[in-house]
Amino acid sequence: MSNPPKIVVVAMPLSALVIDADVQPRVEGLHPPTVKEYRERYKAGDTFPPLVAYGTKKKAIVSEGFHRAEVYRLEEVAEVEVELRDGGKEEAKLNALGSNKNHGLRRSNADKRRAVETALSMRPKWSDRKIADHCGVHHQMVADARSQLDDSSSSQPQQREGKDGKVGRVRPRSSGRTRGECGGGRRGWGGRHTRGVRGNAAVRP
């Protein structure tokens, strides 16, 4: 069993962080009232967890903390704390799909739907339950979205990867008919919190 990746928090210039609209998972993008609230809390001395970004100390793509990053921009913060992870845009985008399932501004149903559809396009071989777990939604939402996005069964992967990483064959989808209707007698297949660092102040451990 592999060890979980080590979490590395570093101080980075805000100018080295890339805000990519394609990575931002929300349908409406930033929520101005939330930016205002966070900005007021920041001015009052509140603490925020590090941003999460993928890349290097020279350039990294933000994956979590878009509203906080906007506050830092407005407040002209020079350096902030970042949980820096290996990877690029694809990893940042995939991670962002479930970034607010347990904290932060609650997602709308449209936000959840967008996350599911994006996950399906990025990881079509993942099972419904694995995508649901990653995006923080019910697996039926994933099944419905997959059914609508992949109208032709021939275009769907014949195998999918489950939450445990194992690959299995896909069960046939129900056609809504029973074997009785087809001539048979049986029925068919039915935060560790840290403050953004102002200026060139040192990062607290």
Task: Name its key features.
globular, disordered C terminus, 15% strand, 205 residues
Low-pLDDT parts are 174-195, 197-205
Global Rg: 21 Å
**Share of β-strand residues:** 5-15%
Please bin the fraction of helical residues: 25-40%
Largest sheet: 5 strands, mixed
Q: How many helix segments? A: 6
Topology:
Layout: E1 9-13, E2 17-18, H1 32-43, E3 51-55, E4 60-64, H2 66-74, E5 79-85, H3 89-96, H4 109-122, H5 128-135, H6 139-149, E6 159-161, E7 167-169
Parallel strand pairs: 2-4, 3-5
Antiparallel strand pairs: 1-5, 3-4, 6-7
Helix pairs in contact: 1-2, 4-6, 5-6
Could you write a compact summary of the structure shown?
This protein is α/β, with parallel strands linked by helices and 205 residues long. Helix content is 30%, strand content 15%. The strands form 2 sheets. The protein has a 5-stranded mixed beta sheet.
Explained architecture:
The chain has 205 residues and is α/β, with parallel strands linked by helices. The chain is built from six helices and seven strands. The strands form two sheets. The chain has a five-stranded mixed beta sheet. Strands 6-7 form a two-stranded antiparallel sheet. Strand 6 and strand 7 form a beta hairpin. The chain is globular. The relative contact order is 0.16.
